Amino acid sequence: MPDWKSIIEAFFENSDPTNEFRHLANPGASAEAIEAAEKQLGISLPEELRDFYLCFNGVGMAGEDESDEPRFIRPVEMLPAFINESRSSFAGTHSELASRFLPFIDWDNGDATGYLLQQDGTLFPGLVTFEHETYHYDATQDAEEFMTPGPDSLADFLSGGE
C-alpha cells in the first residue's frame, strides 16, 4: 500500500506552498469506525480508501477562522452523509448511476470525486468526478458529460498524477 504519510506531506506542500492555510490531517480512524461506516452504507470500502482511512481520518486545509474539521477528504464518520448528499444531486435523473457513486472528496462547490461501482459491483478503474454545474446545465444529458474520469487511484490523485 502507498506511504500515505509521505503522500499527504507532499500534497500539502504542492497544494499550499506558501503555507497560507492550516493543514488538517486527522489521525487514522479505527477499524471499528470504518466498519460502522461500511455497515451504514451497505458496502465494503475499496481497499485503497480503507487503507487511507486507517492512516488519516480526513484531510483538508482551513483558514484561521474556519473549523478544524477536514472537509476535503471527509472523515469516515461523515462519509455516509456525504455520499448520500452527493448522490441526491443527480439521483432524480440518473438514479442507477447515483446509487453506484462513492464520493469521498468534497470540492466545497457541489462537485465530488470518488469511486464508481460498475453494474456488477466491481470498481470502475480510476476515480471519477461529479461536476454539478455541468449536470445542472442539462440534467437529462448523458452521464459521460458530467461524470469525468480522473487519476487511476487516490494515491495518484494526491500525488498530482493523472
Automatic annotation (TrEMBL):
Q: Which InterPro entries match?
A: Knr4/Smi1-like_dom, Knr4/Smi1-like_sf
Q: Which Pfam families match?
A: SMI1_KNR4 (PF09346)
Q: Which residues form the Knr4/Smi1-like domain?
A: 28-160
SMART domains assigned to the protein according to its UniProt record, in alphabetical order: SMI1_KNR4 (SM00860)
The protein's name is Knr4/Smi1-like domain-containing protein
Q: Which organism is it from?
A: Blastopirellula marina
Lineage at the top is: Bacteria, Pseudomonadati, Planctomycetota, Planctomycetia, Pirellulales
